Amino acid sequence: MSSKESILSRIRSHTGTRYEQPEITLDAIHYEDKTGQFSESLKAAGGAAVVLQAGEDINELIRKHFPDAKRIASNLSEITCATFDPDSVSDPRELNNTDLAIVEGCFGVAENGAVWITQQVKHKALYFISTGLVILINKEDLVNNMHEAYKRVEGTDYKYGFFVSGPSKTADIEQALVFGAHGPMNVLVILR
């Protein structure tokens, strides 16, 4: 008998009553106005959310929020303000100096303003290397809390995925908050 088996055997012999794992029931938070809560949560995280109004041009809305962006990346057909397709570059280092990336998000979380994004571009560096990030999601694709979010992600097939809530930020012990330390300095979520 190995030392591991010996140790486990001694533990089992001294174990008293065994208990089954209890069923976990959860009364997680729900919001009457998921869109409003999502917007407030994202604002608290340093980002912004806007609702695309009926008849409003999404490209004009993006240009309004990022008027100085020159190098704009997007592989979405509806985005005509993009200046290049990020999937056309062979080396992700060519994405450096991208002012704005416009990408599709899967769904948003009202509780914390996070958006679940799966890799829908050739190089995942695009999500982190651009100065600004615009994420498009449908208003109907908002969930209340992270419990609902993980249930929604569970069992789905994706190559790479992550939650993003606002711009990249870091703070040190001197309480100096820096935006854009490890990713975009500005994040805008457009709810369609």
From TrEMBL:
Its recorded name reads: L-lactate dehydrogenase complex protein LldG
Per the UniProt record, the source organism is Parabacteroides faecis
The UniProt record lists the LUD domain at 93-191
Residue ranges annotated as transmembrane are: none
In terms of domain of life, where is this protein from? Bacteria
Q: Which Gene3D superfamilies match?
A: NagB/RpiA/CoA transferase-like
